[in-house]
Write a structure and sequence with these properties.
The chain is α+β, with helices and mostly antiparallel strands. About 35% of the residues lie in helices and about 35% in strands.
């Protein structure tokens, strides 16, 4: 996986989170995971197709999703209702749009799927990307609160 694909997503996530949450964001240590993995409870998934193929997953706990949704809407959420879910999807849209703009400026051409939201306990996400591992970049939002940017992308086999 080329770093040119990853950096725009990491930078966009950092910038968007800092802007919409108006708090200090710290980037954690980058690590690799298999593309089949458990999610923390709430995950927004965006698919990529074109010059590159794969997916970007924004993974967080339900508590983090409620706090992020509340912060973005200026209210407190106690349940992950339709507005809270739509807010997390919009967050994924905002991050992905910024990253894709950077990638298009670098000459990469591909399309995106709208963010799909997955919620629940003991859920796994897997992909059919073969030997590609997912690069995980944790974004620390505060004590016991993080969003993991999970990127699994490869150049399209032609």
């Amino acid at each position: 996986m080329r770093v040119e694909y990853i950096n725009p997503f990491v930078e966009a996530t950092f910038n968007v989170l800092k802007e919409v949450l108006n708090t200090d964001i710290k980037r954690g240590e980058i690590y690799l995971k298999p593309t089949t993995m458990s999610i923390m409870g709430v995950a927004a998934l965006v698919g990529l197709a074109g010059d590159v193929e794969g997916r970007v997953l924004f993974d967080m706990t339900k508590e983090t999703a409620l706090n992020v949704s509340g912060s973005m809407n200026g209210e407190k959420f106690t349940v992950l209702d339709d507005l809270a879910k739509a807010t997390i999807q919009e967050l994924a849209n905002m991050i992905t749009a910024q990253a894709v703009t950077k990638l298009h400026d670098l000459g990469f051409k591909f399309d995106l799927t709208p963010p799909a939201l997955f919620t629940g306990e003991n859920m796994e996400v897997s992909s059919n990307l073969g030997e590609v591992e997912a690069l995980i970049v944790p974004m620390e939002l505060g004590p016991n609160s993080k969003i993991e940017v999970n990127v699994a992308i490869r150049e399209r086999v032609k």
